[in-house]
Amino acid sequence: MRGYSRVLVTGGAGFIGSHLVDRLLGEGFEVVVLDDFSSGRMENLSGCFGRDGFVLVRGDVRDRDVVRKVVEGVDVVFHLAALVSVPVSVENPVLVEDVNVGGTLNVLKVCVDVGVKRFVFAGSCAVYGEGHGVPRREDDVLDPISPYGVSKLAGEFYCRVFYRVYGLETVVLRYFNVYGPRQVYGPYSGVISIFINRLLEGRPPVIFGDGNQVRDFVYVKDVVEANFLAMFSKNAVGEVFNVGSGRCTSINELAGLLIELMGVDVKPVYSDPRLGDIRYSCADISRARKVLGFEPKVSLREGLLETIAWFKENYGRKTA
Ligand code: UD2
Question: Which atom of ligand 1 is nearest to the CA of 198?
Fold first, then answer.
């Protein structure tokens, strides 16, 4: 496989990172995970312990020594470690800058020093800011509306500059609304895990605003696939790609679909719009299709069924 054997996943104990780790181990890679467990969870890695080639290191991406230790001998780095909450970034922008920008820069610099071959960055659709009713393209104006969005934008610019200046093969993936098993359920979690858990409790989903706001919900395993393609694609180097399903779903449709799939006899409740909520966020994924060969495989219905099944099994495991 292009000579890669050992990879590092920062944030590998998190929701998306742990799915990536599972797949990498399944495909025979040696996988080092760096996670400070600020939001990652040990149980996300329960299938990994004792497996050949799996190494877990507890540490912070801002810590040069620990990063140097985990990057040594690695061919590819998937950098997912970050503070991912928009509200937390509004409360504490300095901390989010420190972890998301400083941490990314630290890892990038060590990658150059050590001679890592490729660096795949977990970016975000938050770099686009408010939409105008058409799917986002990578070359759209970038106008983040939260400190979190700014931190992800800085991270992706550093990736591009590290390619231009130092020749490190960086690839940026802009994730849209990722969902699936292991997504945290708590006050800051994604709408899908919140709605499913409320319905499991027999309570109606609460829709903020009129529910006509739309999102592109992409299943976590499709996101893992995008990371694989980004690791191997020759033409992806120095580029940025939207990673979404390419389909738009309103929050009203989502609530209706979940109520139907879970067979709960409730109707959504409407509440005040959330401050700063984006109305329209959908991905144009034609560049990822063309350059990476990315094709999302899991429909919203299938992905929701898998997610519902997981929450049923793990019901009550609430973590914020
Ligand atoms: C997503 C990302 C965030 C950032 C942002 C960039 C998640 C969890 N969050 O935020 O990290 O990248 O995109 O724009 O993926 N809603 C309800 N009821 C609820 C909860 C949410 O109606 O109980 C609505 C909410 O008002 C919003 C939509 O559902 O319109 C999606 O909310 P979200 O928090 O899941 O994700 P989003 O798009 O705000």
Answer: 23
Q: What is the pLDDT of residue 320?
A: 42
Which residue's CA is the nearest one to ligand 1's atom 32? 191
CATH fourth-level superfamily of 179-215+247-315: UDP-galactose 4-epimerase, domain 1 (3.90.25.10)
What type of residue sits at position 289?
R
246-281 tens-digit pLDDT:
999 999 999 999 999 999 999 999 999 988 789 999
Residue 293 Cα to chain centre, angstroms: 19
Would you say residue 2 has pLDDT above 70? no
CATH superfamily of 6-178+218-243: NAD(P)-binding Rossmann-like Domain (3.40.50.720)
Ligand 1 site residues, Cβ closer than 6 angstroms: 84, 86, 124-126, 177-178, 190-191, 194, 206-208, 213, 215, 251, 274, 277-278, 281
Q: Is 188 noted as a catalytic residue in this protein?
A: no
DSSP state of 43: G
| Domain spans, the chain | 6-178+218-243, 179-215+247-315
User: Which of 163, 90, 177 is closest to 120 using CA atoms?
Assistant: 163
Q: How far is the CA of 226 from the centre of ligand 1 (A)?
A: 21
| SS3 category, 147 | helix
Q: What is the pLDDT of residues 70-125, one digit of tens each?
A: 999 999 999 999 999 888 999 999 999 999 999 999 999 999 999 999 999 999 99
Q: Is residue 60 a contact partner of residue 103, using CB atoms and an 8 Å limit?
A: yes
pLDDT of residue 275: 80
